[in-house]
Amino acid sequence: MSDRPQIPNAGDASTPSDQRLSSYRFVIAGLLLFLTFSPGLSMFAFSPITPLIIDEYGINHSTASLLTGLVFLAHAGFSIPGAMLVGRVGLKNLIALGWLLSSAPVFTFLADDFGVLLALRVVHGLGFAIAFPALGALYMQWFRPKELPLITGAFTGCMFLAVAISNFAIVPMADAMGFRPALSVLGMVSLVGVVFWLVFGRAHDVREGDTQGVRESVLSVLGSRNALLIAVADAGPFVLYTVSLAWLPAFFNEVHGISLADAGSLMGILSMAGVVSLLLAVLLTFHVRRRRPFLILPGIVVGFAGLGTFLLAGTPVIYLPIVALGFASMFHLPVLVSLPMELPGASPHRVAVMRATMFTIGGIGTFFGPLIVGATRDLTGSYIPGLALFAVLAWSLAIGGFLLPETGSARANQYPPVD
Question: How many helices (H) and strands (E) does the chain have?
Answer without folding.
Answer: 18, 0
